[in-house]
Protein backbone atom coordinates (compact mmCIF):
# COMPACT_ATOMS: atom_id res chain seq x y z
CA UNK A 1 0.00 0.00 0.00
CA UNK A 2 1.17 3.52 -0.81
CA UNK A 3 2.67 5.58 2.02
CA UNK A 4 0.30 8.41 1.19
CA UNK A 5 0.52 12.00 0.04
CA UNK A 6 0.66 15.50 1.46
CA UNK A 7 -2.49 17.00 2.90
CA UNK A 8 -3.43 20.57 3.75
CA UNK A 9 -4.77 21.81 7.08
CA UNK A 10 -7.83 24.02 6.78
CA UNK A 11 -7.46 26.21 9.86
CA UNK A 12 -7.73 29.80 11.03
CA UNK A 13 -3.94 29.88 11.61
CA UNK A 14 -2.04 30.67 8.38
CA UNK A 15 1.13 28.65 7.73
CA UNK A 16 0.66 26.51 10.86
CA UNK A 17 3.19 23.90 9.78
CA UNK A 18 5.81 26.49 8.82
CA UNK A 19 5.55 28.15 12.24
CA UNK A 20 5.98 24.82 14.04
CA UNK A 21 9.07 24.00 11.97
CA UNK A 22 10.46 27.45 12.82
CA UNK A 23 10.06 26.76 16.53
CA UNK A 24 11.76 23.38 16.10
CA UNK A 25 14.69 25.24 14.50
CA UNK A 26 14.86 27.64 17.47
CA UNK A 27 14.81 24.72 19.91
CA UNK A 28 17.59 23.03 17.91
CA UNK A 29 19.81 26.11 18.19
CA UNK A 30 19.20 26.35 21.95
CA UNK A 31 20.01 22.68 22.45
CA UNK A 32 23.13 22.99 20.30
CA UNK A 33 24.31 25.99 22.34
CA UNK A 34 23.71 24.05 25.54
CA UNK A 35 25.63 21.09 24.13
CA UNK A 36 28.56 23.38 23.28
CA UNK A 37 28.69 24.79 26.82
CA UNK A 38 28.50 21.33 28.35
CA UNK A 39 31.31 20.11 26.09
CA UNK A 40 33.59 22.99 27.07
CA UNK A 41 32.89 22.44 30.77
CA UNK A 42 33.70 18.74 30.46
CA UNK A 43 36.95 19.54 28.61
CA UNK A 44 37.91 22.08 31.28
CA UNK A 45 37.03 19.64 34.07
CA UNK A 46 39.40 17.00 32.74
CA UNK A 47 42.00 19.72 32.04
CA UNK A 48 42.08 19.01 28.30
CA UNK A 49 40.37 22.14 27.00
CA UNK A 50 43.38 23.16 24.88
CA UNK A 51 43.28 19.80 23.10
CA UNK A 52 39.53 19.29 22.83
CA UNK A 53 38.36 22.76 21.78
CA UNK A 54 38.51 21.78 18.11
CA UNK A 55 36.47 18.63 18.76
CA UNK A 56 33.84 20.51 20.76
CA UNK A 57 33.56 23.14 18.02
CA UNK A 58 33.29 20.46 15.31
CA UNK A 59 30.56 18.56 17.12
CA UNK A 60 28.49 21.62 17.95
CA UNK A 61 28.85 23.10 14.43
CA UNK A 62 26.94 20.12 13.08
CA UNK A 63 24.89 19.78 16.25
CA UNK A 64 22.12 22.22 15.34
CA UNK A 65 21.49 20.61 11.96
CA UNK A 66 21.59 17.12 13.43
CA UNK A 67 19.28 18.02 16.31
CA UNK A 68 16.89 19.77 13.91
CA UNK A 69 16.73 16.67 11.70
CA UNK A 70 16.11 14.40 14.68
CA UNK A 71 13.40 16.70 16.09
CA UNK A 72 11.61 16.86 12.73
CA UNK A 73 11.69 13.08 12.39
CA UNK A 74 10.39 12.53 15.92
CA UNK A 75 7.70 15.18 15.54
CA UNK A 76 6.46 14.00 12.14
CA UNK A 77 6.41 10.35 13.19
CA UNK A 78 5.30 10.37 16.83
CA UNK A 79 5.17 13.60 18.81
CA UNK A 80 2.61 15.49 16.67
CA UNK A 81 -0.22 13.32 18.02
CA UNK A 82 0.88 13.22 21.68
CA UNK A 83 -0.39 15.51 24.41
CA UNK A 84 3.15 16.62 25.25
CA UNK A 85 3.16 18.49 21.92
CA UNK A 86 0.56 20.96 23.26
CA UNK A 87 3.15 23.61 24.33
CA UNK A 88 4.73 23.53 20.88
CA UNK A 89 1.36 23.99 19.19
CA UNK A 90 0.65 26.86 21.57
CA UNK A 91 3.95 28.55 20.66
CA UNK A 92 3.07 28.34 17.00
CA UNK A 93 -0.49 29.48 17.59
CA UNK A 94 -1.68 26.28 15.93
CA UNK A 95 -4.06 23.48 16.84
CA UNK A 96 -3.31 19.81 17.08
CA UNK A 97 -4.79 18.04 14.04
CA UNK A 98 -7.50 15.46 14.76
CA UNK A 99 -6.28 11.88 14.42
CA UNK A 100 -8.61 10.07 12.02
CA UNK A 101 -6.29 7.14 11.24
CA UNK A 102 -7.68 3.64 11.61
CA UNK A 103 -9.75 0.93 9.96
CA UNK A 104 -13.42 1.41 9.19
CA UNK A 105 -16.29 -0.81 8.05
CA UNK A 106 -19.49 0.27 6.40
CA UNK A 107 -21.36 0.73 3.16
CA UNK A 108 -21.16 2.88 0.07
CA UNK A 109 -24.36 3.54 -1.87
CA UNK A 110 -24.07 4.40 -5.52
CA UNK A 111 -26.12 5.92 -8.29
CA UNK A 112 -24.91 5.49 -11.86
CA UNK A 113 -26.37 7.82 -14.46
CA UNK A 114 -24.34 6.43 -17.39
CA UNK A 115 -24.84 2.68 -17.57
CA UNK A 116 -24.32 0.74 -20.79
CA UNK A 117 -28.03 0.24 -21.42
CA UNK A 118 -28.77 3.95 -20.75
CA UNK A 119 -30.83 3.04 -17.68
CA UNK A 120 -30.09 4.68 -14.37
CA UNK A 121 -29.09 2.20 -11.70
CA UNK A 122 -28.54 2.41 -7.95
CA UNK A 123 -27.27 0.04 -5.32
CA UNK A 124 -24.88 -0.40 -2.43
CA UNK A 125 -21.68 -2.21 -1.51
CA UNK A 126 -19.92 -3.22 1.67
CA UNK A 127 -16.55 -1.59 2.09
CA UNK A 128 -13.47 -1.67 4.30
CA UNK A 129 -11.71 1.68 4.57
CA UNK A 130 -8.19 2.29 5.85
CA UNK A 131 -6.78 5.70 6.78
CA UNK A 132 -3.05 6.10 7.39
CA UNK A 133 -2.08 9.48 8.79
CA UNK A 134 1.05 11.27 9.94
CA UNK A 135 1.81 14.94 10.58
CA UNK A 136 2.02 15.82 6.89
CA UNK A 137 0.96 12.68 5.00
CA UNK A 138 -2.31 10.83 4.68
CA UNK A 139 -3.77 7.94 2.70
CA UNK A 140 -7.45 7.06 2.40
CA UNK A 141 -8.07 3.64 0.89
CA UNK A 142 -11.44 1.98 0.17
CA UNK A 143 -11.54 -1.74 -0.64
CA UNK A 144 -14.67 -3.43 -1.99
CA UNK A 145 -14.83 -7.21 -1.36
CA UNK A 146 -16.10 -9.77 -3.85
CA UNK A 147 -17.95 -12.96 -3.10
CA UNK A 148 -14.78 -15.07 -2.86
CA UNK A 149 -13.17 -13.12 -0.05
CA UNK A 150 -10.93 -11.02 -2.26
CA UNK A 151 -11.38 -7.48 -3.47
CA UNK A 152 -12.96 -6.56 -6.78
CA UNK A 153 -12.25 -2.83 -6.72
CA UNK A 154 -10.80 -0.04 -4.63
CA UNK A 155 -10.15 3.67 -4.42
CA UNK A 156 -7.09 5.59 -3.25
CA UNK A 157 -6.89 9.25 -2.27
CA UNK A 158 -4.64 11.60 -4.23
CA UNK A 159 -5.07 15.02 -2.55
CA UNK A 160 -6.78 16.02 0.70
CA UNK A 161 -7.74 18.94 2.94
CA UNK A 162 -8.40 18.26 6.64
CA UNK A 163 -10.62 20.75 8.42
CA UNK A 164 -9.66 21.85 11.94
CA UNK A 165 -12.65 23.39 13.68
CA UNK A 166 -13.38 24.47 17.24
CA UNK A 167 -14.89 21.12 18.22
CA UNK A 168 -12.20 18.38 18.44
CA UNK A 169 -14.91 15.68 18.38
CA UNK A 170 -15.99 16.68 14.89
CA UNK A 171 -13.95 17.17 11.76
CA UNK A 172 -14.19 16.67 8.02
CA UNK A 173 -11.90 15.86 5.14
CA UNK A 174 -12.32 16.63 1.48
CA UNK A 175 -10.23 14.68 -0.98
CA UNK A 176 -9.86 13.55 -4.57
CA UNK A 177 -9.48 9.88 -5.37
CA UNK A 178 -8.80 7.35 -8.09
CA UNK A 179 -11.15 4.36 -8.32
CA UNK A 180 -9.64 1.22 -9.81
CA UNK A 181 -11.88 -1.61 -11.04
CA UNK A 182 -12.32 -4.17 -13.82
CA UNK A 183 -15.30 -4.62 -16.13
CA UNK A 184 -16.25 -7.56 -18.34
CA UNK A 185 -15.58 -7.04 -22.03
CA UNK A 186 -18.68 -6.81 -24.26
CA UNK A 187 -17.63 -9.92 -26.19
CA UNK A 188 -17.52 -11.92 -22.98
CA UNK A 189 -13.80 -12.58 -23.29
CA UNK A 190 -11.66 -11.26 -20.46
CA UNK A 191 -11.91 -8.03 -18.53
CA UNK A 192 -10.71 -4.46 -18.92
CA UNK A 193 -9.12 -2.48 -16.13
CA UNK A 194 -10.53 1.00 -15.80
CA UNK A 195 -9.82 4.08 -13.70
CA UNK A 196 -12.34 6.64 -12.51
CA UNK A 197 -11.53 9.88 -10.70
CA UNK A 198 -13.73 11.75 -8.29
CA UNK A 199 -14.03 13.88 -5.17
CA UNK A 200 -15.43 13.06 -1.75
CA UNK A 201 -16.33 14.81 1.49
CA UNK A 202 -16.46 12.82 4.73
CA UNK A 203 -17.51 14.12 8.15
CA UNK A 204 -16.14 12.46 11.30
CA UNK A 205 -18.10 12.52 14.58
CA UNK A 206 -16.50 11.04 17.69
CA UNK A 207 -18.58 8.54 19.68
CA UNK A 208 -17.80 6.30 22.65
CA UNK A 209 -16.79 3.57 20.19
CA UNK A 210 -14.64 5.71 17.91
CA UNK A 211 -15.32 7.76 14.81
CA UNK A 212 -18.62 7.60 12.96
CA UNK A 213 -18.24 8.74 9.37
CA UNK A 214 -20.86 10.10 6.98
CA UNK A 215 -20.09 11.41 3.54
CA UNK A 216 -20.81 11.59 -0.15
CA UNK A 217 -18.84 11.42 -3.36
CA UNK A 218 -19.03 12.34 -7.05
CA UNK A 219 -17.11 10.68 -9.86
CA UNK A 220 -16.19 11.93 -13.32
CA UNK A 221 -18.24 9.20 -15.03
CA UNK A 222 -21.50 10.61 -13.68
CA UNK A 223 -21.70 8.41 -10.60
CA UNK A 224 -22.41 9.60 -7.08
CA UNK A 225 -23.38 8.16 -3.73
CA UNK A 226 -23.22 8.24 0.05
CA UNK A 227 -20.71 6.85 2.55
CA UNK A 228 -21.47 5.46 6.02
CA UNK A 229 -18.62 4.04 8.14
CA UNK A 230 -17.87 3.09 11.74
CA UNK A 231 -14.38 2.76 13.15
CA UNK A 232 -13.07 -0.66 14.17
CA UNK A 233 -11.78 -0.49 17.76
List keywords for this structure.
single chain, 233 residues, alpha+beta, Porin, 2 domains, eight-stranded antiparallel barrel, 10 strands, 28% helix
Structure description:
With 233 residues, the chain is α+β, with helices and mostly antiparallel strands. The chain folds into 2 domains: 12-91, no CATH class; 102-231, Porin. Helix content is 28%, strand content 43%. It contains 3 helices and 10 strands. The protein has helices at 16-45, 49-77, 86-91, and strands at residues 5-6, 8-10, 102-112, 121-133, 137-145, 151-163, 170-184, 191-207, 210-219, 224-231. Strands 3-4-5-6-7-8-9-10 form an 8-stranded antiparallel β-barrel. Helix 1 (16-45) packs antiparallel against helix 2. The longest helix has 30 residues, at 16-45. It is elongated. The model has no long low-confidence stretch (mean pLDDT 83).
Amino acid sequence: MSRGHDYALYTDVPNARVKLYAWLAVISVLLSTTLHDVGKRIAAFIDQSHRLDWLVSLITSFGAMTIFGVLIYLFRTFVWKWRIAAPLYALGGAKQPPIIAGKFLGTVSWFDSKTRDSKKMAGGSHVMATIIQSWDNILIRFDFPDGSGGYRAGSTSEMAILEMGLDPSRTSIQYTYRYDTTIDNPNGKGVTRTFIHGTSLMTFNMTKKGWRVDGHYYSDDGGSGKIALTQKV
